[in-house]
């Protein structure tokens, strides 16, 4: 009910109340802001105070960072204050539970053995000795804090003008199509659209098509594969044979891609319906022929954010080789930390950093010289899949156990029948085809442009949604 009602009010009320284009945009902005805050309140009304705090602090910091109004000293105060506030909130909500669990395991472990203490520290599971309740992670906090920081940093760098209207800035932070799980929108990319945008029938239709394709990727492919993945991970992974372990790993690779890219497609489509042009967040990453290319195609908005606000300020590649390798390592260390308070994310980010450094040293040249690019793509996909196992695991020990079963678990193909249904087999085939293979060999523009295909996908997705209550979004947890 939410989206149809929002669209009806968004387009109906300004047309009735306002005659000019400028007046319509002003009223439309306030309407979209109200609906966005209502949307976020579904995740917890109390968290409206949190997002309001982020909005007010960063809007105020923008004025302090203005080059036209203040000197360098006050501007630095504004920038540092915003960074401390945003990162402080992010680290508190993401890492407080891990901090408490570590303290409990190290100093209040009672009769636990040293091995049990170590396991507790590595898994982030506390003993409950301090009696401190766990902090619930607010939905979307990793995304809207990074968006707020991009505004403050861009104002400080004099790349954008200060947004004097607090409600327009609030709309930029809370705009509901991409509020929950991205893509991360840079203020400089959307500043002009806050005051000057229009939606014709063609743009609106394109938004609907993009939304339908995103929804179908999420509901039809990601959810179906998720049931296979969860069934495998719910087993005793130390007893998995290699065929089942590889099946779970491959299914998760496609699940997370179609889950997150599907959400991004829906966000981009919804943005088009409201007149906003959000940048692409995925570009068929499983077609990549190197790790470097993979990160240019995967979660582009996050990669771009770290490039613009961490890698380049550190010196980027315009420095000595050793300093460049250090910069790469820092970026991917932070990328792992950004994803959450678990050693698995830290290891996942660090390994990617090491692989990218090795590519710069010699692996990249070897990949470039290989004339059979299919093998490059296959190698990168396997490496990415192994790292997705680390990403998926609850603990680093579980990740190590699972990966070991992928290589020494024994080959028992008949065991696959315990996890696969006709629907999951068909879904897996479609996931392989549309995970980049089809797009690499043919244009799918004609298919996407077919209204009947979009309508069919929408109806099929709605049927799946109605008949299945299992509908998790992976990136909600971030």
Q: Can you count the beta strands?
A: 0
Q: How many separate domains?
A: 3
How far the N terminus sits from the C terminus, by CA atoms, comes to 26 Å
Helix content: over 70%
Low-pLDDT runs of 5+ residues are none
Q: What class, by secondary structure content?
A: mainly alpha
Mean residue pLDDT:
88
Shape assignment: globular
Described by strand count, sense and barrel closure, the largest sheet is:
none
What is the beta-strand fraction?
under 5%
SSE order: HHHHHHHHHHHHHHHHHHH
Rg calc? 24 Å
Count of alpha and pi helical runs: 19
Describe this structure in words.
The two termini are 26 Å apart. The protein is globular, with a radius of gyration of 24 Å. Helix 3 runs antiparallel to helix 4. By secondary structure, the chain is mostly helical. Helix content is 71%, strand content 0%. The model has no long low-confidence stretch (mean pLDDT 88). The chain folds into 3 domains: 1-42; 43-174, no CATH class; 203-477, no CATH class.
Short description:
With 478 residues, the chain is an all-alpha fold. The protein has helices at residues 2-17, 21-41, 47-64, 72-107, 114-123, 141-156, 166-174, 187-190, 201-233, 242-273, 291-297, 300-314, 321-339, 343-369, 373-392, 396-408, 422-441, 445-448, 451-467.
Element layout with pairings:
Layout: H1 2-17, H2 21-41, H3 47-64, H4 72-107, H5 114-123, H6 141-156, H7 166-174, H8 187-190, H9 201-233, H10 242-273, H11 291-297, H12 300-314, H13 321-339, H14 343-369, H15 373-392, H16 396-408, H17 422-441, H18 445-448, H19 451-467
Helix pairs in contact: 1-2, 2-7, 3-4, 3-6, 3-7, 4-5, 4-6, 9-10, 9-17, 9-19, 10-15, 10-16, 10-17, 12-13, 13-14, 14-15, 15-16
